[in-house]
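Hey, can you fold this one?
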Amino acid sequence: MPQPHTLKISEIFPSIQGEGLRQGEPTLFIRLAGCNLKCDFCDTKYAWISGQDMAVTRVLDKVKKIYNSFPTRWICLTGGEPLLQGVEGLIRRLKAEGFKIQVETNATIYRRMAVNWYTVSPKSPEYFYQPEYRKKANEVKVIVTKSLNFGVLQRLRQEFPDIIPLLLQPQSNRKWSEKRAMKLLRQSLKENLNNIKLSAQIHKIFGWR
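Sure. Predicted structure:
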């Protein structure tokens, strides 16, 4: 008898989307375990290794239970790196239940899926991403680390259509990173780079999960 498809899940919880253009929207988060980059500035390092094997049906049951008291139709798959795992079946089942799907990804992996919103966040040092995201991304989130330079922004702006915003997100809302983000934003204005925006993690400001 075939075994049910399982995913390694770090946590499932309701909250408010604190980042990007969907900021402020009630969202149910499914955090998948595992990451292929393991950035030193990551604020969810616990998701790299810890996780529970859960059948897709069990994930759906937990989502429906949370929905009863927190009836949002938005679900965000995040990590870690959620696309390390075969999430296609989960997404199909969630969509069949009427949910809208956001995927937060470092974009090193591409899977053909019916996703409503892609948050693409290429990471240093190479800022590599799969080329399919040039058309699929709804937003490009760039973490303002000490290694981020203006040349990276120029390249990303040239590679992604102007209609897709590039979001400069300070690293964990730290002051030095906020100052660096403002400097890069001003330089972007002077160099006529279009659709560069400053972002922040409002869930950390307000103390949300």
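The chain has one domain: 6-206. Let me know if you want another pass with a different chain boundary.
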